[in-house]
Amino acid sequence: MLRVADHFERTDTGRARRANEDSYFARSPLFAVADGMGGAQAGEVASGLAVEVLEQGLPDEGGSIEERLASRVAEANERINALSREDERLAGMGTTVTAAYVGEHELTVVHVGDSRLYRLRDSSFERLTEDHTLVEELVRQGKLTPEEAGAHPQRSIITRALGPEAGVQADTLTFPARDRDVYLICSDGLTSMVPEARVGQLLRSASTLQDAGRALVDAANTAGGRDNITVVLFRLEEVHAAGVGAAAGDTARLTGAAAAAEQPTATGAAAPRARDVRGALAEADTAEGTPAEPRRADPVPTGVVPRRPQPPSEAHAPVATEGRRRRRLRIPAGAIVSLFFLAAILVAFWFASQTVYFVGASDDGFVTVYRGMPYDLPAGLDLYSVNYESGVPVAGLPARQRQVVTEHQLRSRDDAQDLVRQLERGRLQP
Ligand code: MN
User: Fold this and answer.
1) What is the pTM of this model?
2) What is the 160 CA–ligand 1 centroid distance (Å)?
């Protein structure tokens, strides 16, 4: 039978965000990553809840491991959804989840969203999950090439998550596992920054899981670290069920060619091969007629969940470094008083401008809540900053809704955020 020989986990806020909304769980035989999304602290709450539910382990009853794992995910979805409806500040929150359970001879996986599971077996590095993102679905339907998808402005929009809806459809998969397999579960903060081939390289070249985990997080940060980065790594080994005492010696003897030769019989024909499972899933998908192709005028299907917003960017004013000057300037008192009043007025104006909000489009063309007033001052000063960037592309909105985004009407914060939330859910009446 298999057991977890070693594991390593690390989560990092990255270089652009102020909070870490990822959560992970690692207690053999269950490993998981959850990547939360939602305004303020909502993302953390959502991913934390998912992990809290998984902490209970598998329910004792309820069928196969796949079914029991899926029932935990359904439970997590219900709890996140219920809480998001009780508390307005948590409205619309959601999270991805990718969880893997190490069984006697196989790995069982439940997956929702765009966190990923990879396997390194011998030197072959392979992704075992499919992203539930708009662009990957378009790729699967043959409407986008993988190259186009990689550069697509909407590549971070996910189509499934725990929380936003009362129910969730999770992928469940089972893979025959082997001695010395290494598995990586990670959030998109890694894979959006580091190309897949490079992730595989770093994993192959590291001598320990710890080195590998650190190298992966470092690589994501070096590439910009625009999102929270979480990696969970574990390595399996084959042990004989007879007893732990014998296990160490057996493992030592099992490594190498003998283990490789022995494994296929252990997992052989009875266990479905990864490709079969994926094939069957793909068929199931088509059979159920999953989202008919999105209408061209409105490329975002209902139920699409925007990625977590960018944290409000607050420009840090340069700290005054000038020391006090010895030289006395002779300025008429009246001028000083005038300057003082002018400064006071500007400061008051600045504060006033910061209590209002408006809805507009971001540079990338997404519906965005701005704090401040929709004006640029000379010298490149803006009177506004991003408060919340949604995943809703302005180009996809019907004309009437688009007008809401272009008119820049001043609103209260709640009003502006509420408006965007309605757009996100596709529920704003045109
Ligand atoms: Mn993320």
Assistant:
1) 0.60
2) 14
